[in-house]
Design a protein that fits this description.
With 347 residues, the chain is α/β, with parallel strands linked by helices. It has 2 domains: 1-110 and 252-347, Isopropylmalate Dehydrogenase (3-Layer(aba) Sandwich); 116-249, Isopropylmalate Dehydrogenase (3-Layer(aba) Sandwich), CATH 3.40.718.10. It is 41% helix and 22% strand. The protein has a 10-stranded mixed β-sheet with strand order 2-1-3-12-11-4-5-10-8-9, sandwiched between helices. Strands 6-7 form a two-stranded antiparallel sheet. Helix 1 (14-33) packs across helix 9 (292-304), helix 1 (14-33) packs across helix 10 (308-323) and helix 5 (159-175) crosses helix 6. The protein binds nicotinamide-adenine-dinucleotide, 3-isopropylmalic acid and manganese (II) ion. Residues 76, 87, 91, 242, 276, 278 line the site of 3-isopropylmalic acid. InterPro entries: ICDH/IPMDH (IPR050501), IsoCit/isopropylmalate_DH_CS (IPR019818), IsoPropMal-DH-like_dom (IPR024084), TTC_DH (IPR011829). It holds the Pfam family Iso_dh.
C-alpha cells in the first residue's frame, strides 16, 4: 500500500487540538482512499524549549528532511517564551531551510459560514513570498536601552527570490481565472518595491494570457474588504502577504477557517502545512478551537502529495459540515464535536 511519512509538529496551545483533529480526518481519508499515512510526532514547542533550551534539537531540520511532508499546528507561547525566540527557533527556519518559498493561502467562504461582508461571492488565492523580504532576519540594535538607540531591520529581496514567487503566482493565475494582483508599496519604498514592480512587468510579457494589475498594499487591504470578488490570485512579499492573509481569514469567517501551505515547488525538500492562525492562548484550554483551518491545510497536503481525490473528499466533507451549521460562527461547538461531524460525512 502506498505510504507517506508525515512529521507532526502540534506545537503550542490550540495547535495540539487542531493537529489531533486534522490527523484523525486525514487518517480516515487515507483509509477510505487506499493509502497510508505514517505519522511521527515531534514535541517541539515552547514547552520543549523550557525543558531543553531550544525549540528543536540541533539535528531537527535534518530529521524533518526525511519526511514526505510536515503538518504543523501552531508555535508560540509569549507568556513563557518570547515570540522572537520561538518563531525564529522553529517555524521560520523550517520555511527557509526547506525552501518553502511559496506560501499558498486560499480565502473563500465555505457554505453556511457567516462572513462579515456584504459581498460573499469571492475566491481569492493569496501567494505569499515565504523565505526572504522583510523576514530576512538581517539587522541589529545599537546603543540598546539608551536614548540614542537605533534599530535596523533590513528587507532583502533577491532577483531569484522575487522572480520565482511571481512566476509561481502567474502559473496559479493561469490555472484559475487568469488574473494576477501584484502587491507592493513602490510609492514609498523606492528600492525593493520598485524592483518587484519591474520584475512583475518583465514576467507579464511571458504571460500574455494573464491580466496583471499592480496595487499598493494599503489600497489592496481596502479592496479585499470592499471588492473581494474583483480578485483572483494575489502575490505579495512576506510581511505584506502575512497581513493580507489575516484580512483574508477575517473575510472568510475568521482565523479558524484560513488554511495555509508552505510549498517547496521544486520538491527538493518537504513542504509544510499549517493553519494561518497561531496558538490562541486566550482559548487554549477551552476545547473550542475551530479545527477547520487545520483540516483544510491537511487537504492541501494530500493534494500536494498527489492524492487529489482524497483531498477533494475532505473539502467536500468540510463543506457539508459547515452547510449544516457545524463550525460556523452561528454555532459555537467544541473542537471534538466539529471533528466528529466532519468524520461523519467523510466519504
Ligand atoms: P492567534 O491566531 O493565535 O489568535 C488570534 C485570535 O484568533 C484569538 O482571539 C484566537 O482565540 C482566535 N483564533 C485563532 N485561531 C482560532 C481557531 N482555530 N478557532 C477559534 N479562534 C481562533 O494570534 P495571536 O494571538 O497573535 O498569537 C498567539 C501566538 O501564536 C503568538 O505566539 C504568535 O506569535 C503565534 N502565532 C503562530 C503562528 C504559527 O505558528 N503559524 C501563526 C500566528 C501566530
Ligand atoms: C503566519 C504567522 C507567522 C508569520 C508568525 C507567527 C511568525 O503570523 O504564519 O502567518 O508571520 O509568518
Ligand atoms: Mn500571520
Amino acid at each position: 500500500m502506498k505510504t507517506y511519512s508525515i512529521a507532526l509538529i502540534p506545537g503550542d496551545g490550540i495547535g495540539r487540538d487542531v493537529t489531533d483533529a486534522a490527523w484523525a480526518i486525514l487518517a480516515k481519508a487515507a483509509e477510505n482512499s487506499g493509502f497510508r499515512l505514517d505519522g511521527t510526532r515531534f514535541p517541539w514547542s515552547c514547552a520543549f524549549y523550557e525543558e531543553t533550551g531550544s525549540m528543536l534539537p540541533t539535528d531537527g531540520i535534518e530529521i524533518l528532511r526525511g519526511f514526505d511532508a510536515i503538518l504543523l499546528g501552531a508555535v508560540g507561547w509569549p507568556a513563557k517564551v518570547p515570540d522572537s525566540v520561538s518563531l525564529h527557533g522553529l517555524l521560520l527556519p523550517i520555511r527557509k531551510a526547506f525552501v518553502q518559498y511559496a506560501n499558498v493561502r486560499p480565502h473563500r467562504l465555505l457554505p453556511g459560514v457567516q462572513g462579515p461582508l456584504r459581498v460573499e461571492d469571492f475566491d481569492i488565492l493569496c501567494i505569499r513570498e515565504n523565505t526572504e523580504g522583510e523576514y530576512s532576519g538581517a539587522g541589529g540594535r545599537i546603543h540598546q536601552g539608551t536614548d540614542n538607540e537605533v534599530a535596523v531591520e533590513t528587507s532583502i529581496f533577491t532577483r531569484a527570490g522575487v522572480e520565482r514567487i511571481l512566476r509561481f503566482g502567474f502559473e496559479q493565475a493561469r490555472a484559475r481565472r487568469g488574473r494576477l494582483a501584484s502587491v507592493t508599496k513602490s510609492n514609498a519604498q523606492k528600492y525593493s518595491m520598485v524592483f518587484w514592480d519591474e520584475v512583475t512587468r518583465k514576467l507579464a510579457a511571458e504571460y500574455p494570457d494573464v491580466e496583471v494589475t499592480s496595487y499598493h498594499i494599503d489600497a489592496m487591504a481596502a479592496r479585499m474588504i470592499l471588492a473581494p470578488d474583483s480578485l483572483d490570485v494575489i502575490v505579495a512579499s512576506n510581511l505584506f502577504g502575512d497581513i493580507l492573509t489575516d484580512i483574508g481569514a477575517a473575510i472568510q469567517g475568521g482565523l479558524g477557517f484560513a488554511a495555509s501551505a508552505n510549498i517547496n515547488p521544486d520538491r527538493s525538500a518537504p513542504s509544510m502545512f499549517e493553519p494561518v492562525h497561531g496558538s490562541a492562548p486566550d482559548i487554549a484550554d477551552l476545547g473550542t478551537a475551530n479545527p477547520i483551518a487545520a483540516v483544510w491545510s491537511g487537504a492541501m497536503m494530500l493534494d500536494h502529495l498527489g492524492e487529489a481525490d482524497a483531498a477533494r473528499k475532505i473539502m467536500h466533507a468540510l463543506e457539508r459540515t459547515t452547510a449544516s451549521g457545524f463550525g460556523t460562527a452561528r454555532a459555537q461547538q467544541k473542537t471534538e464535536a466539529i471533528t466528529a461531524a466532519i468524520l461523519n460525512v467523510l466519504d
